[in-house]
Amino acid sequence: MAVNLPSPDPASLHPVPGVDLGVAMAGVRKANRKDLLVMRLAPGTSVAGVFTQNRFCAAPVVLAKKHLKNEVQALVVNTGNANAGTGEDGVRRAMHVCDALASHLGCAADQVLPFSTGVIMEPLPADRIVAALPRALLHQDDWLSAAEAIMTTDTVPKAYSRKVRLSRGTAVVTGIAKGAGMIRPDMATMLGFIGSARSRAASRRRSCVMARARPSSSPSRSSAGAMRLNAAAWPMRSRTRHS
Fold first, then answer.
1. Would you give the DSSP letter of residue 26?
2. What is the rounded end-to-end Cα distance, in angstroms, of the chain?
3. What contacts 106, CB < 8 A, 6 or more positions away?
4. Quick check: is 124 in a domain?
5. Shortest CA distance to 63 belongs to which of 115, 134, 103?
6. pLDDT tens-digit readout, 49-83
7. Is 44 contained in some domain?
């Protein structure tokens, strides 16, 4: 667990063209804290992802795996409640959030990827999340705010960003993650999101994601990792070039 580390400098986290961030306080578990993140993706954005290998997956994982097959328009992430161990009711509540966000964006519900993290075995307060969606959509937030909105037991927000000059211009890569000791089994309760402004073929994106995720299968033990099972998704911008 990171201790006494400074928060990332917001100025060092570069915006990614085609990825718009909005943060709100939904009161999922605690009042007056950032706990809702909406990531809107521009048309033409392609998305790749890896998920926990545990057979006992939380409701958002079940839906995100299905929806990832479609042209994804947005991701919605809440902290405070993992919606794990909640059965079919948890799937319905997660789908309710997808439906609500889709209605705001004018897309289909199966074009939204849901993610939840926090306490387990409690019903997701979907109505609170749905009520806060307009506030998240009105905001234009930065990557640091996004990192803060997905924290659980983290002592500091986790974010990193780089600009890399290539032969055809400059590539921008910015990412955030949450989780402290939450790496077993294979992603366990970790959430990670990476945005890139360079195009990659779908097969190449998938191999890159798998290569980055592979260290998460280290044999370290986590008491939460046996039950609280979320996912990691990695939005990859496909067409916009940044110079």
1. -
2. 36
3. none
4. yes
5. 115
6. 888 877 888 999 999 999 999 999 999 999 999 99
7. yes
* Strand positions, DSSP E, 65-119: 74-81, 112-119
pLDDT of residue 169: 85
Element (H, E) at 135: helix 126-138
Whether residue 49 is contained in a domain is answered as yes
Residue 76: give the domain boundaries: 13-236
pLDDT of residue 53: 79
Quick check: is 45 catalytic? no
- Judge whether 121 and 84 are in contact, CB under 8 Å: yes
Phi/psi for 64 (5° steps) reads: -60, -40
Alpha carbon distance 111, 69 (integer Å): 9
The count of structural domains within the chain is 1
Closest CA to 232 of 186, 196, 174, 171: 186
Task: Enumerate residue ranges in the chain where pLDDT < 70.
Answer: 1-3, 181-188, 198-243
Catalytic residue among 45, 153, 189, 240: 189
User: Residue 36: which CATH number?
Assistant: 3.60.70.12
**Beta bridge partner(s), residue 160:** 175
pTM of the model: 0.83
C-alpha torsion angle, residues 145, 93, 188, 142 (rounded to 10) = -10
Say how far apart CA 158 and CA 177 lie, in whole Å: 5
User: Does residue 109 sit within a domain?
Assistant: yes
